[in-house]
Amino acid sequence: MSDTLNADPAELAKFSELAHRWWDPESEFRPLHQINPLRLEWIIGLAPLVGKKVLDVGCGGGILADSMARKGADVTGIDLSTKALRIAQLHAIETQTPSVQYREISAEALASEQPSQFDVVTCMEMLEHVPDPASIVRSCAQLVKPGGWVFFSTINRNMKAFALAIVAAEYVLKMLPRGTHEYAKLIQPHELAAYCREAALELRQAKGLSYSPLTKRYSLGAGTSVNYLFATQRVI
């Protein structure tokens, strides 16, 4: 792997080892299956997907990419995990998912290849796993058309997020494998907002994602103290 590639080999290896379990809703990826309807509905509420050209950056096994294609979008999913992409491609073939394709390419490389080509770009649960998240944000801004939407989701960096998103989720409730997240890589909302401003992305809406251990359900709300989502638009 190139030293200049904006990816952590350890992170890629970690998710590659679990690639065969992406589409098992009771596996380590269960939280992604549970939150996907929420984030999909939120995206559609701001940027209807029918007939739109959509890019999913860091698509993994294709959970979000697949669901956006089924809502009428022409979707491209990109990732640097070969095994995860194979699982995504196999699932698309098996389920005959319309209008979805997958490529093993970085966001930066695709931005050079296809600038301003997408109506909507999504980058969910990825920024906290790369060495240079600002570079991903810039690439997403370059890939989307002027006026197009870019959606991000990630995890805040504070003691509450450490307690809930790492200690509780990974060690107590065991919702995620231990070591899924590193505290130092988490991103505070003001930091992500700065990356967006520098990339000419204007923040339109911020949402928080919370989990109730009692009901075992996720919900979207106003608080961004732990998991949060940004909806942005390219202004130039």
Structural description of this entry:
With 236 residues, the protein is an alpha/beta fold. The protein has a single domain, classed as Rossmann fold (3-Layer(aba) Sandwich). 38% of the residues lie in helices and 25% in strands. The chain is built from 8 helices and 8 strands, in the order H-H-E-H-E-H-E-H-E-H-E-H-H-E-E-E. The protein has an 8-stranded mixed sheet. 42% of the residues are buried. The model has no long low-confidence stretch (mean pLDDT 93).
Instruction: Order the strands across the largest sheet as they lie in space.
Output: 3-2-1-4-5-8-6-7
Secondary structure tally: strands: 8
Number of domains: 1
The shape, in one word, is globular
Counted by DSSP, the helix tally is 8
Kindly report the name of the CATH homologous superfamily: Vaccinia Virus protein VP39
Helix content: 25-40%
The SS-based structural class is alpha/beta
CATH classification class: Alpha Beta
Order of helices and strands: HHEHEHEHEHEHHEEE
Instruction: Give the DSSP E fraction (strand runs of 2 or more residues).
Output: 25-35%
Q: What characterizes the major β-sheet?
A: 8 strands, mixed
**Would you identify the CATH architecture?**
3-Layer(aba) Sandwich
Gist of the model:
The protein has 236 residues and is an alpha/beta fold. It is built from eight helices and eight strands.
Give a topology summary.
Blueprint (H helix, E strand, L loop, with lengths): L8 H9 L12 H17 L6 E5 L5 H7 L4 E6 L2 H14 L4 E5 L2 H7 L4 E7 L8 H11 E12 L3 H14 L16 H10 L2 E12 L4 E5 L5 E8 L2
Parallel strand pairs: 1-2, 1-4, 2-3, 4-5
Antiparallel strand pairs: 5-8, 6-7, 6-8
